[in-house]
């Protein structure tokens, strides 16, 4: 059976679980790389929460609370850059 999501090296559609891009910039540091990865994880989790709420698996209030919780976690990781 062929893989439905070819890897990015094969050029094609990417898996939704595959990272969208790599961090690039003149001010690269391990901390910034970690924040970039945290930001991608945040985006993936928000997508999953929105999907659960949209399919009636959780309420809007539960979705909001979960997103607020992971937002605070992301914000804390940003604070570690300073």
Protein architecture, described:
The chain has helices at about 30-55, 60-80. It is mainly alpha-helical.
Q: Topology of this structure?
A:
Layout: H1 30-54, H2 60-79
Helix pairs in contact: 1-2
Question: Features of this protein?
Answer:
82 residues; mainly alpha; 55% helix
Per DSSP E runs of 2 or more residues, the count of β-strands stands at 0
Secondary-structure element string: HH
Mean pLDDT metric: 79
Give the uncertain stretches in residue-range form: 1-8
Count the helices. How many? 2
Helix content: 40-55%
Biggest sheet record: none
Short description:
The chain is an all-alpha fold. It is built from 2 helices and no strands.
